[in-house]
Design a protein that fits this description.
Elements: H1 2-18, H2 22-33, H3 38-44, H4 54-92, H5 109-123, E1 127-128, E2 134-136, H6 137-140, E3 167-169, H7 176-184, E4 188-197, E5 209-219, H8 224-239, E6 245-249, E7 255-264, E8 281-290, H9 292-297, E9 306-313, H10 314-322, H11 335-338
Parallel strand pairs: 1-4
Antiparallel strand pairs: 2-3, 4-5, 5-9, 6-7, 7-8, 8-9
The chain binds phenylalanine.
Length: 341
Amino acid sequence: MFDQLTKLKEKAVREIKNSKVLKELHNLEVKYLGRKGELTKLLRQVKDLAAEEKPKFGQLGNEIKEELNQLISEIKFELNKKEKAGSSKEKWLDVTLPGRKFIKGHLHPNSLIQYQLEDVFSRMGFIILEGPELESEYYNFEALNIPPTHPARDMQDTFFIKDKTGWVMRTHTSNMQVRTIEKYQAPLRAVFPGRCFRYEATDVSHDTTFYQLEGLMIDKDISIDNLIAVMKVLLKEVLKREVKIRLRPGYFPFVEPGFELDVNCLICGGKGCPVCKHSGWVEMVPCGLVHPNVLKYGGLDPKEWSGFAFGLGLTRLVMMKYGIDDIRLLQSGDLRFLQQF
Ligand code: PHE
C-alpha cells in the first residue's frame, strides 16, 4: 500500500504540472484531493493496515497531501496570471469601438500663397532662395544704396539688435539682392520669400511681422516691359481673375526708376475701405529697375547688365485673395480664424 501511495503521488505531480488552464487544474484537484478523490480514498484504507503501520502510513499520506496542495497553489498562481493578461488584452481589442478622431493640421494661408507663387515663378525659370532674418546693416541697407546717414533709412522703422551694433531684424527681403548677385552673378532669375520685421504701431493693415516675396531678374537689356509682363502673369495666376493694376512712381534708393504697383482693392471692389485706406487701391508690389550701384555692390558691371526687382507684399496678397480685413489675424494663432482655410 505504501508503494501504491508513492505511485499515486508521482502520477498526480506529473498531471498537475502538465495542466494548461485553470479549469484543468481544478479538475485534477478534485480527482486526487476531493472527498471522493483517489488520494482520499487510498488514505481511508488505513483501517486495513496492521496497527504498527498505521501511523507511518498516515504521516506519509499527509505529507503527500500537503505537497500536492502546495504544488497546486503554485501552478494556480501562474495560470491565473497568464489568463488574466490574456483576457485584459482581449478587452483592449474591441474592434467595434469607433476610432479616435485624428486632428490634422494644414498649411497657413501665408504658406498656401507662398507655395503657389513659388510654383508660378519656377515655371518662369526663377530659382527660390531663403535668406537670414537677422541681417547685417550692410545687406539690409548699405549694399542697397542706403548709406548710414541717408534719410531713406527712416522709411523703414527698424528693430535694431541690442548689444550687437550693425545688426538688424531684416526690414525687407531686399537684403537678399546683393547676397544673391554675389553668389550667382548674371544672368540670374531668383525669388526670395520670407519674414520681415518692422517697428510698427499695429493696425488693420500694419503688423510688426509680415511676409514679402522678393524677385530679382538680371540679364542684358532688361526693361520695364519685362517687369510688367512678369507682374501680370503673377497676379492673374494667384488671384485667378483679371485685376486692375496701376503703376505710380515710387522712391526706393535701390531701384531707378522705381514704382508702386497698386491693385484695385478686392475687399471693397474699389469703393474704399480701411484696408485700402479709402483709396480703392492697395499698394501690392513696389518695384523698379535695379540701381547701377546695387549691381556694382554685387560685382557686376552696370554697363553690361541690367535688371528689375520687386518686393511683393505676400501678406497683403493673402489678405486680398481671401478677403481678410485685419492683418493681425494672420499671426494671431487663433484657430477660429485658421480653421477656415
Ligand atoms: N524692399 C522694399 C520695401 O520693403 C520694396 C521693394 C523691393 C522696392 C524691390 C523695390 C524693389 O519697401
